[in-house]
Amino acid sequence: MKRFLLALALLAPLAAPAILVPGVAHATTNPADMLPDAALEQRARALGREIRCMVCQNQSIEDSEVALARDLRLVVRERITAGYTDAQVRDFLHARYGDFVLLRPPFTWSTAALWATPVVALLIGFSLILLSRRRSAQPAPPAPLTEEEKRRLAALDAETRDGTRA
Q1: CB-based contact 62:15 (threshold 8 Å)
Q2: Which of 144, 164, 151, 62 is nearest to 103 (CA)?
Q3: What is the CA radius of gyration of the chain?
Q4: Are residues 92 and 135 in the same domain?
Q5: Same-domain pairing of 117 and 69
Q6: pTM reported for the whole predicted model
Q7: Considering its fold, how many domains does the chain have in total?
Q8: Cα angle at 30 between 12 and 63, to 5 degrees?
């Protein structure tokens, strides 16, 4: 435990710049690629956070450092500089790469199964749990009486009817 704490104490200062200074951890845009107009650059970055890196798959092109992400960032900036709206840039990339390029793909009937599968799986799981609990909560049916038990029961019944046993 002491070694772990010592390692943590030695490595913590290395993480401080990434935590304290926003943009240091995600400074993936080359300054030469940035747009001279700050408002357009901000639009390009916001739009880049909505576009999926085709290589990394779970990162936006703004967060990815691979060459394809850089190329897509340049395409976004070129389109914005050419006067395209955000929707037009999104539509251009969507037409070229399909739903996969969008980090938040639109809800369509073709993607409904993907959206519904986790919910359906949870409902089935909860139903199975409830059914198994109900079945285990019900008492087991009594075992049939053996011949000896039947004979003793008949004898007790006869005694009770005769009044010999009170």
Answers
A1: no
A2: 62
A3: 35
A4: no
A5: no
A6: 0.53
A7: 2
A8: 55
